[in-house]
Amino acid sequence: MRITAALLFLLASGLTPLRAQAVNHDGFTAGEPSLEDKISQLLMISVDAGELAKATAAAAAGIGGVQIQWGSYSLEDTRRLTAELRKSVLRSGSKLPLFIATDYEGGSVYAPTTLGLCELPTNMMLGAADSENDTASLFYLAGRELKRAGINMTFGPVLDVNTSAQNPIIGIRAVGGDPALVSKIGGAIINGFKTAGILAAPKHFPGHGAATEDSHKRLPVINLSTAALEEQHLPPFKRAIELKAPVIMTAHIRYPALDPKNPATLSKTVIVDLLKKELGFNGLVITDSMDMKAITSVRPIHKAAALALAAGADLVLLGKGDFRKARDEIAAQVRKGVITETRVNDAYYRVIEAKKEAGLFEAGTFPSPFDKAYVNIAEALSEKAVTLLRDRRAFLPLKNKELKTAVIIFAPPRFYENALALYKTLAAGGYSVEQSVFEINPNAAAVSKALSIAQKADRLIIGSFQWAGAQNRNQKKAIKALLAAGKPAILISLMNPYDLTNYPEADAAIAIYGMTVPGMTAVGGLLAGEIQAQGKLPVELK
Q1: Domain coordinates of the chain in residue numbers?
Q2: Catalytic status, residue 204
Q3: CATH class belonging to 5-12+38-357
Q4: 520 CB contacts (<8 Å, ≥6 apart)?
Q5: Residue 344 is inside which H or E element, if any?
Q6: pTM (2 decimals)?
Q7: Active-site position among 48, 134, 216, 391
Q8: Which of 288, 314, 346, 499 is catalytic?
Q9: How far apart are CA 421 and CA 523, in angstroms?
Q10: For residue range 261-319, what is the model confidence (pLDDT) as tens digits?
Q11: How far, in Å, CA of 250 to CA of 517, rounded?
């Protein structure tokens, strides 16, 4: 069946509009979140695929969202990353899901292609084609692609009307220079994403199209009259509000006609008086990334984050800024009375309502019921299979997370990626951990390097990978040397448990019976104290 813009409009319009909760919260119970917990939900950081530990640590600490920027050109890696983020929240005991976002707008923003997502046409291509039906269909499918990757929010569409030929940062990111065209095609994009269940965040309010400078490098100033702004740049945002766009992103641009002092992101006049009151937007206001020079050239990120919240922003995108520093700064200003707790409560309930409306409190979306069932059962069986054979010195669960833990694994190269699951689980649990993987048949140089790593560590986790009767002598010698290094050591049999008979001197020994991702995750959970060993040795060992 062909998906038409009309059908998408009806489907999208049937969704309940996001509405702000009342700010009178006198009825809070004793279980009310702490001030820091609420503020955490109002913050979002940006990470690359290689910054998993940073991302999962923030997720476990209660941050509201994570933007994924550069990836590895693999959809599977992106799905693993988003799954780890969700797991970090669950492990923390939090019941609040994450916004997981990306810039999926096409054009000159190519980061999504590194996440394994389909490459979108540029917005200006869409404007030239001028097909509302096809655009809506395309972005419905693009939204399903995001869902498949575990992403639930996109920073787009770009609703800037490009009226400046010298604009250094928008250009083909805009649909065009006609407000009616931008409104029509931008509206089709919003409806497509919304019908696919993706939170769209149209940007950059109140308009970046007339800029002649790049806000990534400096603060642009646009000297337009309020009449010109109303006629040329606000219509697409008005259309987005009519379509009940759930989120709108602000611009780091100063409009002297609106606010002679502050950029839109830090302006109560722009966010509250214009966007929320005059235009009637009841959704979630998110800032553009606060690590851009338009902001950082004037003030540090954590100070600017507090100003943005006070000005009416509900969700602050910190970029590469320090999440905890921003949270603590905002909390300090609330306690001093600089920012009212009413403002924090209003923003907090807007965030929670947006997450509810997007269905983020429901079970995670999998490509099919089969996938979901298979993954759940495989993980459950892997956890039940982990077998603790001995722990003479009561190492488990690992204590003193700050101790330098060296994970040294011997395995064939085809298992190297699976090995990462153990590292990721420990890193997400807050452990100071480094992991090294060596060939199953290590040469003298590899053994020497492994011993050097061991000498610098406070404790060792050693992974042995042996087939049934084909015991690898070099690996056995290397593990013997590591166990003799005088450091507390835990030995994990990654494949065949018979190899454990070679190492009676190991004070702690674990078997997982196969180097799968669920198996490596499960043994990490055992080490971190997240699960208990339930497995029973299915063979006899001498």
Answers
A1: 5-12+38-357, 370-527
A2: no
A3: alpha beta
A4: 418, 419, 420, 421, 422, 425, 512
A5: helix 341-357
A6: 0.65
A7: 216
A8: 288
A9: 9
A10: 999 999 999 999 999 999 999 999 999 999 999 899 989 999 999 999 999 999 999 99
A11: 40
